[in-house]
Amino acid sequence: MIKQIPVCRYEQLIPGRGVAVLLPDGSQAAVFRTAKDELYAVGNLDPATGAYVISRGLTGSRGGMPTVASPMLKHVYELASGRCVDGPAGPDPAHRLPTYPVLREAETVYVLEDPAIPRDGNAFVLDDAGAAAGDA
């Protein structure tokens, strides 16, 4: 069964900034609103350091893809796929953030959690009707 975990009201998400949300299983997600008003959710745990800091990262883009840079060692992750596109030694396939579907329903933003939804980089955003709006 899909769980909708409320994050906050949409207008409370400042473009370019992240917020952390505690998930029912005890893990954390980092939710971002981009300058283009796209929503993404990735794991908040930095795989390079073991610190829950991704929500405090610097957002940007690489090759047109929205990214977040960890505030610790500056690894850069794609928000859509969770893959590490740059780090101290370049791209690092050993480091990857889990991704979560995000839903904006009315003015509330939710992270969706479902064991059937892959968390290996297959991020997508659902529209108000719950249909996949394509890869985010």
Automatic annotation (TrEMBL):
GO terms for molecular function: 2 iron, 2 sulfur cluster binding; metal ion binding; monooxygenase activity; nitrite reductase [NAD(P)H] activity; oxidoreductase activity, acting on paired donors, with incorporation or reduction of molecular oxygen. Keywords: 2Fe-2S, Iron, Iron-sulfur, Metal-binding, Nitrate assimilation, Oxidoreductase. GO terms for biological process: nitrate assimilation. It holds the Pfam family Rieske_2. The keyword Transit peptide does not apply. Residues 5-111 form the Rieske domain. InterPro entries: NirD, Rieske-like_NirD, Rieske_2Fe-2S, Rieske_2Fe-2S_sf. This is Nitrite reductase (NAD(P)H) small subunit. It comes from Actinospica acidithermotolerans.
